[in-house]
Task: inverse folding
């Protein structure tokens, strides 16, 4: 276990290791595997302790994570059941914000969380947190929020409340945020936590299959279309990009999560160290950025596309038109040529 801010842990312990109370766990908008896994994992641990716990997600998440949901920990979709979700948040005694560190990542739940006047607790592994919670466990050295949740639970003395169900969810979060253990795995603590989770008799093979072998035929066709027709390579900058329009998403019956992982494919090409995925949304262009080596995907996104994240994995967005956003990206590459070639 790595060192976590003891003062913050002590404050959190006073809130959640006393008498049972009402807790709400909130992951970020468009929840990915780490967001869902860490949220359900923590919620299950707290429920096993005796708290009344509910997870409130801002919007839909990929259907291939549905198997993680269990009847013991209700999950409410704010987009689909706003009144019920708002009431749940308002009745809570404390809120855990997981896997995001700026309030905009709460989507339409932003104001409700800001207005919440009881303890708000952040547990997250992204750098440069914003100050919107009362207590923060912010540890960017962790591979995932799920790994961090495991260590936080241990420091709170809640390890004996981890069950197979909780361990399965936390393992899922670690597995997905490391790309099935292909990146951000240089810290031995990651494998220490994984080995301890395996002691709860989780079925790692089934978890992997549920996530990575559970796609629709339309999703596979969309991936093939992107690789064959929408991937552009810029070898002089060691860079590649994929762009997907709203029309193309509709043609392939897009559902949330279908493009998850697409941005990683160009990094398998020899010599490519920077990959960007552009997706056209109704009111903005969404970007996913990945890099290898020392090239800072997060700094690039923060400076030019109102985003941020980790060194090698970041997100961003643009209010430009789809074509203009892509042209801006291409025009920026010469400025980074030396940095890209040296990474």
Result:
């Amino acid at each position: 276990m790595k060192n976590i801010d003891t003062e913050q842990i002590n404050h959190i312990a006073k809130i959640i290791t006393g008498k049972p109370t009402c807790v709400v766990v909130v992951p970020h908008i468009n929840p990915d595997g780490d967001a869902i896994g860490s949220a359900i994992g923590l919620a299950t641990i707290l429920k096993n302790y005796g708290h009344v716990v509910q997870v409130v997600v801002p919007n839909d998440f990929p259907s291939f994570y549905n198997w993680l949901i269990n009847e013991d920990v209700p999950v409410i979709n704010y987009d689909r059941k706003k009144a019920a979700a708002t009431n749940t948040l308002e009745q809570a005694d404390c809120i855990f914000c997981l896997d995001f560190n700026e309030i905009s990542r709460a989507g339409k739940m932003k104001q409700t969380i800001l207005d919440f006047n009881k303890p708000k607790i952040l547990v997250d592994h992204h750098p440069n947190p914003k100050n919107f919670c009362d207590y923060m466990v912010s540890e960017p050295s962790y591979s995932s929020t799920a790994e961090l949740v495991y260590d936080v639970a241990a420091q709170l003395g809640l390890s004996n409340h981890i069950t197979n169900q909780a361990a399965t969810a936390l393992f899922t979060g670690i597995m997905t945020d490391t790309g099935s253990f292909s990146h951000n795995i240089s810290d031995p603590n990651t494998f220490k936590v994984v080995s301890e989770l395996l002691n709860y008799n989780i079925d790692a093979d089934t978890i992997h299959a549920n996530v990575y072998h559970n796609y629709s035929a339309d999703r596979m066709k969309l991936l093939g279309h992107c690789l064959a027709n929408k991937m552009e390579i810029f070898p002089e900058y060691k860079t590649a990009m994929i762009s997907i329009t709203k029309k193309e998403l509709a043609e392939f019956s897009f559902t949330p999560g279908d493009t998850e992982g697409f941005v990683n494919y160009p990094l398998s090409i020899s010599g490519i160290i920077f990959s960007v995925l552009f997706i056209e949304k109704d009111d903005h262009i969404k970007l996913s950025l990945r890099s290898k080596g020392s090239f800072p995907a997060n700094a690039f996104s923060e400076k030019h596309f109102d985003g941020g994240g980790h060194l090698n994995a970041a997100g961003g967005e643009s209010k430009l038109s789809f074509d203009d956003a892509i042209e801006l990206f291409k025009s920026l590459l010469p400025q980074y040529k030396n940095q890209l070639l040296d990474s």
